[in-house]
Specification:
317 residues, Spore Coat Polysaccharide Biosynthesis Protein SpsA, Chain A, 2 domains, ten-stranded mixed β-sheet, 14 strands
Length: 317
């Protein structure tokens, strides 16, 4: 495209095409809600690619009927997040120009109408950059879920740019440079994939492939930012083993062995081997000390505060 009117009569010198890739497995209500939000975007030069990886709740047929403009691709049923995202990404790479973009998004998210327009404007103002969104809780948009991470190479850990649960304030504005980010609302230039390849579905089948790719891109000369003005509302209770509001010990233990959990030992070890090959043990110690400590604090707080008879009753008086 050349000069294009893309939103509300305003123009961009070049309106790149954005391929919005959404991997899904069941949860059709989430998917339809997400796609409805995308349909209301003020930025119109985009193509939604939904990869339905073996849904059994009628997702494929319902999306096809409600959103015929969406590219629907059937998965094998065993792709997980990374494999399904790569299927959509390969479609995008076949149809995109080098100056176009890919946006990765989960189906349990919601975005405001000006979301995509803002992301694209920030990306065009910062060439050779990956722009991540600010993720907030869908049930309480005042609270930040994640804003990306800054790598502390000396101590083998990623430090959150903003601590989870912090209220969004005036200081949370503009672009902030980070090392890596998760895949919920990340705008990546096509040139990133031409340089570093697609997501690594062998080492990171479900979690951490997004972090690994954005960190690899940063190490290859791309800048990574969090855009505090581009907000993704995220359903905090719909993803991951052990993501329930009530801390359950058996769920937590199971999360160490589930590919669908961010705590998965095998996946974390692969991350350590990739980025800390000589300090794998230190990296894993740092990660799991925080993970286990955080769970024990939540577990104690919840069960102590909700103990029958506490303060004369069984609630949080």
């Amino acid at each position: 495209m050349g000069l294009s009117v893309v939103c509300d009569g305003s123009e961009m010198a070049y309106a790149p095409r954005v391929f919005i890739i959404i991997p899904v497995f069941n949860r059709v209500r989430h998917t339809l809600h997400c796609l409805s939000a995308i349909a209301r975007q003020t930025y119109k030069n985009h193509q939604v690619v939904v990869v339905d990886d073996g849904s059994t709740d009628g997702t494929y047929e319902m999306v096809q009927r409600a959103f015929p403009e969406v590219v629907l691709i059937r998965g094998t049923g065993a792709l997980f997040w990374t494999g399904a995202t790569n299927v959509g990404l390969r479609y995008a790479l076949k149809h995109a120009r080098e100056r176009d973009y890919v946006l990765t998004l989960n189906n349990d998210t919601h975005v405001y109408p000006g979301y995509l327009e803002g992301l694209v404007r920030r990306a065009l103002a910062n060439p050779k950059s990956i722009i991540g969104s600010l993720c907030v809780f869908m049930d309480d948009p005042r609270c930040i879920e994640t804003a990306g991470f800054v790598m502390d190479w000396k101590h083998c850990r990623g430090i959150p740019l903003v601590r989870k649960g912090i209220k969004k304030g005036p200081q949370h504005s503009g672009l902030k440079e980070i090392s890596y980010t998760c895949g919920k609302g990340v705008l990546l230039p096509i040139s990133v994939f031409l340089r570093v390849g697609v997501y690594d579905e062998d080492k990171f089948p479900h979690y951490h492939s997004d972090s690994a790719l954005t960190l690899t891109a940063q190490l290859n000369g791309f800048k990574v930012f969090t855009d505090f003005e581009s907000i993704v509302l995220s359903d905090r209770y719909s993803t991951g083993v052990g993501a329930k509001p009530v801390p359950v010990a058996s769920e937590f233990v199971r999360s160490f062995f589930s590919v669908r959990s961010s705590n998965c030992l095998k996946t974390r070890l692969n991350f350590a081997k990739t980025f800390f090959p000589r300090r794998k043990v230190k990296f894993l110690f740092e990660v799991y000390t925080r993970t286990i400590g955080g769970f024990l604090r939540r577990y104690a707080q919840y069960h102590f505060r909700n103990r029958p008879g506490r303060l004369g009753r069984g609630d949080d008086a």
